[in-house]
Amino acid sequence: MPRSQVVAGETARIWVSFICYTISTSMTGPLIGLHAYRLGASASEIGVIYGIAALTTFLTRLPLASLQHRLGSKSLIRAGVITNSTSLILYAVAPSTPYMYIASGLRGVGFASFHPPALSEAVRLSGNNQQLGWIMTAPPLGMTLGPLLSSTLLAILGVRLEPSLAYSYTFMVGAALSGIAFFTPSGGEDPHGRGSLGMAELSRLLSREMMLLVSSRFLLSYVVGAITAMLPIYLVEKSIMSEPEVPLLFAWASLFNVLGRPLSPLLKSPTRGMMASSILITATGMLFITPALPTIYSAMALYGLSLGLFIPSSLLAVQSLTDGSSLTMGIAILTLSIDIGSSLGSFGAGVLRGWVETDWIISISAAVAGVGSLLLVKRFMPKGSRASV
To answer: What pLDDT shows up at residue 300?
Structure first.
């Protein structure tokens, strides 16, 4: 079979794997806090539930990524799928908050195992900036379809079942969709049987440019954590939206996330894409000052577009700072900032909610993070052409 057809087939499989996995996580992500709230969890406990998932991912991402050379990407992707499905089943049957803590730990391990090798495969198969943008439409498309699906399920099941059972069945559907991703990963990189990274590779992975990139991603992830954990509770408590409508807002944001992926190559370099993203997240914070429904939808549109521009740009920036053998580990280091940023954003917003209105928490977080990220990305701009792809 011609090499082009092989690559096309692998690309299609990694796209399907990404979209199935992302539908399962995005359809359940906004519901975890609402489900815990119905089980009697406080705002701080809800923050901890989300924080555990992000913190567990942070603690396990590098150790799991280091197994890439021995196991290959396919094995790591499938392990992540199995763990994620198990976590969703545990959420579904959890009778109390402690069980949700355990489920969040498994959810975090699933993220850590799945995402670095899957992203590495996407970069490896893309060949160029434009193609990577299209491959990476799968995650935000899944983020759009997932909330639409969960909203529909809650609306239908809520008519006939108790709310807790409606949530449980929705989590079960997510587990089944996640399971589909087990059968669809691409061929993946072969195991190399190599031990640890050499000092030269480690030096590149811990370079000044990489640390600036990681810091910028951390700030944006803090905003993601705060919005994911606290915005659904705020909208329901203030009667701005009903519970089945909340996922639709996140689906709206994901539509713009999808749009940003293929648009990112038009900015010509990863640095410009990341700068545009930082400006958009700052504007998001300004819009959240006014808690009116049209303004909230506008803010979430900019929020989604910001992430859509930043993610492909940051992956290409990592590619420019690493070689092929250490790409997965480089992506794992970058995504560590997602884990710790989301964890702190979820936990911090949950704690602050006792003293500050939720809309102000999100507004200030987004504005400060956007400005900080912009300053870091400006420093990332190289004197040579190393960060341009």
So the answer is: 93
The SS3 of residue 355 is coil
pLDDT at 383: 42
Residue with tokens 């504007």: 283
Helix axes 270-287, 208-237, angle to 10 degrees: 30
CATH number for the domain spanning 72: value is 1.20.1250.20
Q: Which domain holds residue 244?
A: 3-184+197-380
Q: What is the pTM of this model?
A: 0.70
Residues 6+ apart with CB under 8 A from 380: 209, 212, 213, 216, 271, 274, 317, 387
DSSP class of residue 181 equals G
Domain count, the chain: 1
- The verdict on residue 192 lying in a domain is no
10-residue stretch averages of pLDDT, the chain, 389 residues long: 62 86 87 83 81 84 80 85 93 87 93 86 69 78 83 83 83 91 66 51 71 89 86 82 82 86 80 92 89 88 92 83 73 80 78 70 86 88 42
DSSP-derived letter for residue 186 is -
3-state helix, strand, coil in the chain (%, to 5): 85, 0, 15
Residue 190 within any structural domain of the chain: no
User: Got the DSSP string for 217-259?
Assistant: HHHHHHHHHHHHHHHHHHHHHTTSS-GGGHHHHHHHHHHHHHH
Output Rg (C-alpha) for the chain, integer angstroms.
20
CA–CA gap between residue 227 and residue 191 (Å, rounded): 38
| 323 burial type by CB count under 10 A (0-12 exposed, 13-18 middle, 19+ buried) | exposed
Q: What is the pLDDT of residue 281?
A: 94
Phi then psi dihedrals of residue 326, to 5 deg: -115, 15
Q: Is residue 388 part of a domain?
A: no
